[in-house]
Amino acid sequence: MKILAIDDSNVNLLVMKGTLEKHLSDAQLKTACSGKEGLDLARSWHPDTILLDLQMPDMDGYETIRCLKQNPATAYIPVIVITAADVDSKDRVRALDLGADAFLQKPISSHELVAHIKVMLRIKKAEERLRHSQKLEAIGILAGGVAHDFNNILTVIRGYSTMLLMQTPPEDPNHESLQMIVDAAKRATSLTQSLLTFSRKQEATPSKAELCTLVSSFEKFLRRIIGDNITLNFVCDQNTSHASVDRSMIEQMLMNLAINARDAMPDGGQLTIATAHILLDSKSASALELSPGTYIHLTVSDTGCGIPRELLPKIFDPFFTTKEVGKGSGLGLSMVYGIVKQHCGTISVESAPGSGTTFSIYLPANETSETVQESQ
Ligand SMILES: Nc1ncnc2c1ncn2[C@@H]1O[C@H](COP(=O)(O)OP(=O)(O)OP(=O)(O)O)[C@@H](O)[C@H]1O
Ligand SMILES: [Mg+2]
């Protein structure tokens, strides 16, 4: 967790640093001794929370809040105002009206400060998750609509061009051009199919399957995809229960994740796929935006290059890719996302540059959910 403290008093900054180091051992702290310096750091460092003094020369705390909340890049960072005892309720209202998320008046105990930071972080995470799923939902509706119509048009292009190609002998000067049209139409069809999978418009054919068996029966194929310099490990929980899944969609999902892992480990490494049976109580389920019940927890981890923090919110977006032109279309993870959602599950990712990547997927086990959601 990254915390930025903005205060013109060095003594205050030192006290704050000591408190955080003592009570929040996983916190990284940066300090700024003016509003201007704080704004620059907030834009470049993307802290999770800002602790802000009100009375500062040059740019005071109010102006700092206003600038932070006006800039889309910093507007979502929670701001906790920490101020001296001699402010009145008007100051509090003013700061809150400008967008401060909490207002603490000295003297503040270290426990009170830490509790406020923890609440802010929880709210920020929940807001981020909500914004992210709303964004993907909106893109899905748009992409699904376009892909559906486009697919119908492509059926006509593919049908007529294939028919003409069959009627054209190879020595005909038009044969090669027709072949190119047929090939391009096939590529466009595969692209629109990926978008339809992302937007859950692909027909699902659910059947009861034991996830561990399904994954291991796909092992040979996955080994071929990842090549010899990557070790594939399977960790199957003996208790892994059945789920209603579309077999080919789950295979597609594993394949896309394995290809990404392979691309992230050009010099070799470890790819580990694990399945576990897990019971989520109401607290742990709500943190994952699921209903309480039994789930199959599937994790796909690699020891590859990892994903920079600022790119993590974008990786499920259709057409987001960091691969060079012609190497990736940026649809692999969008399809994975669509497949997980179509199975009423959830997916999250943990990654850091140099530390590998773990995709964590929860799919309802049969005890809690009987069927895979059918496409509309
Ligand atoms: N296991 C991983 N390790 C590191 N980066 C990853 C991993 N998986 C995904 N990414 C990042 O997420 C981006 C999007 O992945 P996605 O699978 O959607 O598209 P792609 O692999 O670039 O192209 P496509 O899958 O369509 O061929 C990748 O370009 C890469 O930057
Ligand atoms: Mg991919």
From TrEMBL:
Catalyzed chemical reaction(s): ATP + protein L-histidine = ADP + protein N-phospho-L-histidine
E.C. number(s) listed in UniProt: 2.7.13.3
Pfam family, one: HisKA
Stored SMART domains: HATPase_c, HisKA, REC
Source taxon at top rank: Bacteria
Modified residues (4-aspartylphosphate): D53
Domain (Histidine kinase) ranges: 145-367
Record-linked InterPro entries: CheY-like_superfamily, HATPase_C_sf, HATPase_dom, His_kinase_dom, HisK_dim/P_dom, HisK_dim/P_sf, Sig_transdc_His_kin-like_C, Sig_transdc_resp-reg_receiver
Name this protein carries in UniProt: histidine kinase
Species for this entry: Trichlorobacter lovleyi (strain ATCC BAA-1151 / DSM 17278 / SZ)
